[in-house]
Amino acid sequence: MQLLKQKVLDEGIVLSNQVLKVDSFLNHQMDPVLMKEVGREFTRRFAGEAVNRVLTIESSGIAPGIMTALELEVPMIFARKQKSLTLRDDIFVEKVYSFTKQETNEITVAKKFIQPGDRVLIIDDFLANGEAAFGLARIVEQAGATVAGIGIVIEKAFQPGGRLLKEAGYRVESLVRVAALDDGKVTFADQD
Ligand code: 5GP
Fold first, then answer.
1. Is 95 known as a binding-site position?
2. In CATH, what class is 32-177?
3. I need a surface site. Which of 28, 42, 143, 179 has the fewest CB within 10 A?
4. According to its UniProt record, in which pathway does this protein act (predicted)?
5. Is 129 flagged in the annotation as binding?
6. Atom of ligand 1 nearest to the CA of 127
């Protein structure tokens, strides 16, 4: 997605050779016009998948998630992150190791919002090792629903998440794929 690539080039800050900061349009300040285009692009890519729910994770997945859900005209659910939890039977719970915070969170979704037979599109802002996406996929599967696809705004293709998710059989669509973050510079994996 050319518009997004340009935004990453213009405003992305390379914090290390592992971490890209995009707090001017996605992770702190948000660009609603760009997010609208992100929602349109995911909708175009997953048009044939009969999606009836969008699932993301708080907080940075919510903007791309809601814009995609708006375009698809389906509800969006965001998984909540919690430190530790007392046992409850009305929620799905999965453990997810956070790449940026280097800690394990429990992520939860109320059971009433995902039903058997649902076709759920998972959306997230970044893909690194795939922890968040796998955690969300396990919640969908706990519910007896199907992962219709996984849409990622920025995939860091030098980390293994994309490959692992595809090997697990999921359809992954990333709007931009970053090949490297070397020497303070962003290099993209795809030429388009
Ligand atoms: P994963 O779960 O795939 O290992 O990492 C993805 C999650 O970690 C995303 O939800 C995102 O919040 C965060 N993340 C991973 N890498 C980056 C990065 O380079 N920049 C930012 N801003 N967030 C990242």
1. no
2. alpha beta
3. 28
4. Purine metabolism; XMP biosynthesis via salvage pathway; XMP from xanthine: step 1/1
5. yes
6. 3
